[in-house]
Design brief:
two-stranded antiparallel ribbon
């Protein structure tokens, strides 16, 4: 499975997909309630035992989605730069920043939510999560907005 992104470059997706799937499985097993997640057990503040069946199903679905996007994000980190570089009229620095921003937007959620479960309602820990994740996601969004405007500028020149 591959896609041609230019006349001279072909990107193969099989290795990226394999990495994404393996990392998604590892991430799912290493969540706070997973068998490998003993190093960040949920805080006593998190009422896991009082969750309803539907709440547990909804949290599990969210956790599966976060694990999948973590795997996709790391696969994009390893394999995605050539694709970003191919479509980019931007500088090398902005192109690399966009590559990292996409990686961060995909991969942060698994760690982010696992830390929320681990920290619970401890305010210093929550502030660290808010600044370490939310603030950096805002920066990633800004980088991608500038990157998109650069692409749009190139597109307008061509058409």
């Amino acid at each position: 499975m591959s896609v041609i992104v230019s006349e001279t470059r072909t990107i193969h997706f099989k290795p990226a997909l394999a990495v994404a799937i393996v990392l998604a499985i590892v991430a799912l097993l290493a969540t706070p309630l997973g068998p490998l997640g003993v190093f960040w057990q949920p805080s006593a503040d998190i009422p896991v035992s009082s969750a309803t069946s539907i709440q547990l199903i909804l949290f599990l679905g969210l956790n599966i989605a976060e694990s999948l996007t973590f795997g996709l994000g790391i696969a994009f980190l390893v394999f995605g730069y050539p694709m970003v570089r191919t479509v980019s009229p931007a500088s090398k620095g902005l192109t690399r920043a966009a590559h990292f921003a996409i990686t961060w937007l995909l991969s942060n959620w698994w760690i982010h939510d696992s830390l929320h479960a681990h920290v619970g309602m401890e305010l210093n820990g929550m502030l660290g999560i808010e600044y370490g994740f939310h603030f950096t996601l805002m920066i990633a969004g800004g980088i991608l907005a500038v990157f998109f405007l650069t692409l749009l500028g190139q597109w307008k020149k061509e058409y």
